[in-house]
Amino acid sequence: IYIRFPQVVVSLLASAGNKVVVLGQVNYPGIFTFKGNAISLIEVIAMAGDFTTDGRRESVMVVSDNFSEHPKVRKIDLLTAIRNGVVDTNILIKPDDVVYVPRSTIADVNKFLNDIQPLLNTLSTAMNLGGTFVTNATQLKGFFWHRTVKVVSGD
Length: 155
Known about the structure:
Blueprint: E1 18-24, E2 30-34, E3 39-40, H1 41-47, E4 60-64, E5 72-76, H2 78-83, E6 92-93, E7 98-101, H3 105-128, E8 132-136, E9 139-146
Parallel strand pairs: 1-7
Antiparallel strand pairs: 1-2, 3-6, 4-5, 4-7, 8-9
C-alpha cells in the first residue's frame, strides 16, 4: 500500500539559535549559540569560559558582517568597560559575529623566553664547564663548542 498524493506539514518546534564564534585567548574557544537578536560581549566571553591569563582584555576584536566584502572590525577595551561599569547594551554581539581575544604582549615575551630557555640552559652549563663558544667565519649559522682538553701522561 502507498499513498498517491501525500501531504506533509513540517513545523519547526525550536531552533538552535544564533551563533557567535569566539577565538583566541579564552578558555574554551568555539562556536556558541544564543537566543534573540543580540547578546552582550561579556556574556559571550563568559560562555567561552572567561579570558585565559594571557588574554588581552583591552584589545578584544569583534568582526561583524560575516567577513563580507566590507567587514566591520571593532576593537573593544573590555577591561576599562568593566572597571567603569559600562558592560551593558553598548557592547552587543550580533548573530554570526566573530570575537577574537589576542595574546598579551607579556605573554609573547614569556613564550619567547620559554622557547629559548633550553638554549640558555645549554650555554650556562657550557660556560660553567670552562668551555668557550666560537663562531666559524665560514658558517655563521650557529655556535660551535670548543674546549681545550689537557692530556696528562702517566709517565
